[in-house]
Task: structure prediction
Amino acid sequence: MKSPNVLILILLATVGISAAFAETAQKAPSAAALNRTVSVTLPDSEQVFPPGAGAEIANSQCMICHSAGMVTRQPPLRFGEWKAEINKMRTAYGAPIPAEQVEELATYLTAIKGKQ
Ligand code: HEC
Result:
């Protein structure tokens, strides 16, 4: 037969565990706290591409999926690299820009963000 000391230890442990659970339950946030309204201010982003020949193509085709800043904050590229970048958007990501607009857009992007 187990000694009374062991039984007392088991009893104390059970009481201790129950008390710990009760404390955890008290700390859980209430439904009202979870449903509260918060307000956040998102960082500013460039709204449109800078003016220039071809800007309207960029504004209509290049902001379907991301901001203008995603393009203008990249390192400068050569004309051919811009063409490759536009074609990557078309083939890898499914950008619907017509093939006949790629040259004009690459010329525009080289003008605003080109390198020699
Ligand atoms: C169909 C959606 C879509 C369209 C439309 C689109 N892009 Fe993107 N673009 C992406 C995705 C996805 C990424 C990668 C985002 C990331 O890595 O977080 C990206 C990233 C970029 C980058 C960053 C460098 C890189 O290769 O990841 C550049 C530059 C860029 N796009 C240029 C353009 C230009 C110019 C146009 C207009 C012709 C355009 N994008 C239109 C989807 C698109």
Summary: The mean pLDDT is 87. The CA atoms of residues 40 and 84 lie 37 Å apart. Residues 61-62, 64-66, 70-71, 74, 85-86, 88-89, 93-95, 97, 105 surround heme C (CB under 6 Å). The two ends are 92 Å apart (CA to CA).
